[in-house]
Every structure is written in structure tokens, then in C-alpha cells.
């Protein structure tokens, strides 16, 4: 298994999640990766960033990362 942690500006997390979390659900279904976005209360205050954690096998994590980067 592989775990990848990415930092995203708090204001950009909505784009990653999609309306009502739809993009994340589609991403999990399509890639088989687990994707978690930290809660606003867990935000890194000094930088206003949140952590996006992607985990799964190498192919799933790579596919999820590519899809998120394309969406951004």
C-alpha cells in the first residue's frame, strides 16, 4: 500500500471535494483509492492549508492524484 499526503489551500478544497462530495465519491469508485480531506478544524493555521490523504495500491494512488491535479 501507498499513502500520499498533499497540502491544498483551504479555499481550494471545495474544488477537490466537488458539490456535495460528488467528485470525491466518483474518484474513490473509479480508482479504488481512499481519499480523505482534513476538516477545517484541522487546518494548518499558519499556512491556511488542509491535508488531502490518498491511500491504496500504487496504481490507485497515482490515478487519484492525476485526477485531482487535472481538476485543479
Automatic annotation (TrEMBL):
This is K Homology domain-containing protein. Keywords: Repeat, RNA-binding. PANTHER family: KH DOMAIN CONTAINING RNA BINDING PROTEIN. InterPro entries: KH_dom, KH_dom_type_1, KH_dom_type_1_sf. Residues 2-72 form the K Homology domain. It comes from the Eukaryota. Gene3D superfamilies: K Homology domain, type 1. Signal peptide: none annotated. Pfam families: KH_1. GO terms for molecular function: RNA binding. The lineage of its organism: Eukaryota, Haptista, Haptophyta, Prymnesiophyceae, Isochrysidales.
